[in-house]
Amino acid sequence: MVQLGRRRSNLLGRCPRAVHHRYLTSLCRRSVRREMAAALSRALKLPGKKGSDLGEYDPLTQADSEDESEEDDLVLNYPRNGLGRDSCLGTGSSKLRGGRSGRLVGGEDEAQEDEEEEEDEWRERLPSKSRPDRDDMKGMQYWSHRDSGRDRAGDDRGGPGPLGGAGLGVHSTDAEEKRMRMKNAVRSAFFLVPLVCATLLVLLCAFLIPCQKGELEKRLQWERALGDIGGVTPRALALWDVDGDSVEDVLLGVTEQTNDTHSTQGNKIYSAVALSAVSGQVLWRKVMRESVMYIQCGLQYSTQPSPVVLLIGKSIVMAVNGTTGRNLWSFLLQSIVSPAVLLPDLQGDSVPDLLIATLPADAQYLYMTLISGLTGVKLGHPVLFNLTSGKLMGPLLHETQQGAYYILFGLGNVKAISLRDIYVRSTSKMPMTQALQRKDPAWEGLKKNNSFIHIYRGDEPMDFLLPLVAGFGNNHNRLDTVSNINASKSDWVLVYGSSKLSVLRQKDIRKEWTFNSAPINSQPAPGHFNEDGVPDLFIRHSANGIMQAQVVDGANGHLLWTAEFVCPHLFLETSAISTSTGQSAFLFWASEPIKAQKNVTKTTVAPGVAAAEPLIRKLFLMHPAYPTILLELTSTTDTTVTSAVSYQERQKDATYITVSSRPTPDSEPGARIVKSMSLRAAITKAQIVRLGESNKTGEPVKPGAFEVNKFFRRLSFKHQ
Questions:
Q1: Which of 18, 192, 445, 460 is in Cβ range 3.0-4.6 Å of 497 for a Cys bridge?
Q2: pTM, full prediction
Q3: CA of 469: how far to CAs of 92, 350, 538, 576, in Å?
């Protein structure tokens, strides 16, 4: 009893206040029952406790045991019975309130009496068990009864939780877990999908696109041998996109040796060949009856989407389909000495017409013939002009500020005549359009003897005549209207007396300035060296094995840049290429540059004796941003005879096309080599050549190599 009292006091100290009240009430009731059971046992003289083998029992001991089990059950199971969770349970089912697991919800006394009666019946069914065995069985019954009650409560509430009725049911918990998993999956998807897409986009932009661009730059560099060169005479070369890949392809005239002695052309075969600018493969080949002197592209027919290519020989003009090389029309004309001049539409068929100059070898007469650009039919008859001897200038088309058209031409000098007059003299009728009937009064007032307008007439013969348009020399044999607009409205560059350079204003035909230099060997190259908006002029002259390169200001004739090189013995035009900085990059051929402190080389060469021809010729690129820096793009022993520049707008790149003669060990003619080189790819591998030296020994060279490489590698190229 003492131990029982201590146990009860301990349990009462641990239990909540509501449990204390229940426990005291239950304690009083149990004490009364125990005393009544003892009195009844004495009155009936029941035997005491027997052994487990006799199957007897002691009512007092059983009562104590019963009290202990009920106390244990009360203390251990009060969370299961719903204490402190009335707010969570709400209105439960009647079954839940009537069961053992819900005896604190309603009818607490009745539920306890029912449980005690059930326990009495259970003890009576097991009379043969001893006290320890009954305790074990009672523990097992307690846990099984508790589990079954929990299962019944779980069925009523939808599923058991660790605290009985505190959690949601099984089905609701599973549904909630599924919803949470679905919600987390959707959130993860919303986060991961944009992340993966952004990663793929970064990888695409960072690796795949530059690789494709680099692959294209690599493919734009190729070399192909076609026929033989037969000397160093410049050959026909033109650029135009004929296969529709947005890259200008290469068209050139080719001469090949043959062993057929019965051929009407002797032992040579002449042809025009179109090469793909991407791979260098032959797109088509057109066999000609004679050597091709000029190839011109850009003529368009409204009835034919394919470009039209004009092939001009010494005695034939032929138009072919630029995509297939199929013949469209041809026109025979003797002694052709100039490329075709693109004219406005003279017949009203929406196709520009052409003018071609012919000059018989034994005559001092220049003929101009008008040809239909659509059919190749001659318009009227040739117009004859009596000229003095000299180098042929033009013909060129010029449009004045009043919108009148004039043709510039000459032999040793330059004259002009109205296109209206040529058309009237050729066809004996007036032009159909009002624009062709127009004349410029200012120009007409310069006429003398009612014949020609004299543009230049002097004692010194004319050497070069060209429009003051940046990049004009890169590929000037174009027949598209866009390429001819600026060229027909600009001022002119004159080189006369072999050493005088002038700019002639087109508005009043007066010289803007004159620059005197050593004899100029090649046509000046207009380009933008400074930022005044007026094209400047790159010129070259050679003497005693020294080549001097100069840039002259196009606005005032002042010298802007000069450098000296070992003479490469080439008479190739310089190319001026427009860049992303607004200035032009100049491409020119030379040999080793001559430093300022090494000018002693000049005095070591005897007068009139040229230095030995160098074996190595180098292609240099000069940009006005770094005038003391040259990039050596390539070097070769080949003799380059003609070149052209093609632009790739998508890649912001340009390709340099050359036609060269490669020396052979035998006495056979050199092979003709056509080579394409991407400028941006060549810049990445170029060598830096410095024209100036540091002023003090030990000082760092400026600008540094890193700065120079960074600038040139970011440089891009574009159309003028």
A1: 460
A2: 0.69
A3: 98, 27, 13, 10
